[in-house]
Specification:
This protein has two domains: 47 residues; 75 residues. The protein is built from four helices and no strands.
Length: 124
Amino acid sequence: MFNSPKAGILKRSSLLEYKQFAAEWFRTLETKKAGNNIDRIDEIAEATDDEIIRRWLWRASIVGGPVAYLVVPFALSILQTFVWAPLMVILWTFAKIIMGVVFALFLFTVYFTFLRPEHGGFDK
């Protein structure tokens, strides 16, 4: 079953559905944010799904990096003077997980940025 051609097709179409869902969701957010700006709405409508996803990945990486690597550790270092030590071990573990997720998101962002459709893209 796993080696059949149908298994690959199902997996591929499922990933494309997730990509389309994410692109639609991000496009809706940008359209709401644009308000009555007709030029911005036209620009959003003309953008491809890959461009929309890439734009939001960069935003998440740029905002998530300083938050995960500066704000969270600073807040935890202040908080550890007031909180029970075994609880802080758990909170630091969550902080490290957040850092790992943000770093992985950044790596995905760089990877997908350099796989633009003119360089092979998502859809090839």
